[in-house]
Here is the input.
Amino acid sequence: MTLEFTPMAGSHAIEVKGIEGVPLAPADTRQLQEAFEQSALLVIRDLELTNESHIAFTRAFGDLVIHPLEFLRHRDNPEIIELSTSPEEPLAEDDPTADEIVAYSGWHTDLTFNPVPSLGGFLRPIEIPPESGYTAYIDAAEVYQALPEATKQKIHGLTVVHSLLDNRAGVPKDADIDFPDEVEAMEEVIHPLVFSHPYNGRPVLFISPTFTRKIVGLSQEASDQLLGELKEFATDERFSYVHIWQPNDLVIWDNWQSIHKGYGHKKKYRRVMHRTTLEGNRNLMDYLM
Here is the structure.
């Protein structure tokens, strides 16, 4: 059966229909790989996966990444990160903290603090709250195309420091987490601010608002000013596709070409998500624009 790829109205997301299960048929694998290389975001509905088949599905696209933060790894399947900040049992409605928002994550691109950033994310819901808990995605190639020509000229050829932790003197850690020594020791890496996508040739504004620290060659003040302007532009809601999760969804994004965030949900609900991560296979500095 030939898969169907349908653009979702008003967004850059592509809905995929016709997948009957895992393991994928060779023809389906080829079609999905081609679509992944050309599209920033694929949405598959009604695909029942176990942890094992989720991992197998991802392996059809390449090797997997084990996340450097051990506490995020699923205890039985370390290839999966488990995103859950809710209590084991939902809070009572009359708990004074019940309506607090948890599990919010700001706009970011995954693992850009690695020398070779991950190529893709494969996310599915395990438990969905009855409200909110959405995930938003932005196509950073669309963002680049929308930049003023003067800005494109200004950022041509620039490179940027990325790191998991903000290591500037006098700056507090980004999160109240006791990071292991190997994470504390991770070195800063440099990526292009704009690169030509190795697979589809599209120019991409490669900016991870959470992990992008400083433009090489600029003062910290000048870098903060320019990066602040670019981050504000890139995360404008007009570029955003907001995914409202349904059971048995699988969302696949090109991590080199995407910025995403989690909206969070009320603490009185449980929300559990599983993600596999596709290993990067190119040095993006080779595609600097």
Notes: The domain at 4-287 is CATH 3.60.130.10 (Double-stranded beta-helix). The chain has a mean pLDDT of 91. The chain is about 20% helix and 30% strand. The first strand starts at residue 4 and ends at 7.
